[in-house]
Amino acid sequence: MAVSDAGATRLTLDLWHPRCWAIEATAQTDGGVLAHAVYHSPEADPVDHLVKGLFTAYGDDRATVDALLDAIAASQHAGELSVLQQRFGRERSAPGTVVQEFFLEYHPGDMICPTLLSHGFVHSAPVQISEGRELWQVCFVGDREELEEELEGVRSDGEAEVEVASISTGVPDGRSSLEQRIDRLTTAQRAAFDHARDRGYYEWPRGVSTRVLAEELGISKTTLLEHLRKAEAKLLDPSDR
Predict the structure, then answer these.
(1) Tens digits of per-residue pLDDT, 140-199?
(2) Would the CA dihedral through 121, 51, 232, 21 be positive or negative?
(3) Angle CA 130–26–238, to nearest 5
(4) What's the Rg (C-alpha) of the chain?
(5) Is the Cβ–Cβ distance between 39 and 53 less than 8 Å?
(6) CA geometry: angle at 143 spanning 141 and 144, to 5°?
(7) Which pLDDT tens digit goes with each residue over 199-208?
(8) Phi, psi of 128, rounded to the nearest 5 degrees
(9) Integer Cα distance of 138 and 116 in angstroms
(10) Deepest in the core among 9, 17, 98, 179, taking most CB within 10 A?
(11) pTM of the predicted model as reported, rounded to 2 decimal places
(12) What CA–CA distance (Å, rounded) separates 134 from 33?
């Protein structure tokens, strides 16, 4: 989908959706979570497959963070939780005075991100979860007049409550963050991602399998998954190069 020359529409979405371990845990405790990135593997097709994400738990003190991690581990929607002893990669900022990074496995069907992507919303910063709500900084890939319809689609498809906390249009530096990230995609990555989104791959349940997508694009399933993995990393993590 082409990005308007006038610049992407930027929004802050305040939302709730079901079956989310982070929403549940932050509603029960005083801590918060920053969601950084999700890692897929070639086995992501099976319905029972788990994906792994990188997150930061934060709070005003160690006890708050520990209580939050305990609540996350106890959630029926969370898989294995691995606390990192050292900081992962680059320095990350969080609102709390005490932070703890961790990996967590969970079911991709519990994610709202594929629903947002399928309706043209690409997030441009780590997602902040606190007090049982998620705060998404997103760019809308589409015409402004389609915005409300697509928001309604997120509410319906994701069984979500979605409020627009802020909205603006403009490109201060000449190009939006979304445009810069789209430019990082290779031709093959862009073609694979656009085709997958158009065919309902990012909907839940998925509208098409990777085997069919690969056949339609005339490439192997392994190559398709590699294109999608790299495209998703570039689009979903604005600091990924």
Answers:
(1) 977 888 999 999 999 999 999 999 988 887 555 555 566 667 777 788 888 888 898 888
(2) positive
(3) 45
(4) 18
(5) yes
(6) 105
(7) 888 877 778 8
(8) -105, 125
(9) 9
(10) 9
(11) 0.65
(12) 9
Return the closest-CA partner of residue 71 out of 102, 93, 114.
102
Please, is 89 exposed, middle or buried when counting C-beta atoms within 10 Å of its C-beta (0-12, 13-18, 19+)? exposed
Distance CA 159, CA 148 (A): 16
97: which residues sit within 8 A by CB, 6+ positions away? 59, 60, 61
Cβ-contact 16, 134 below 8 angstroms: yes
As a whole number of angstroms, the distance between CA 163 and CA 106 comes to 25
130: which 2 tokens? 């606190």
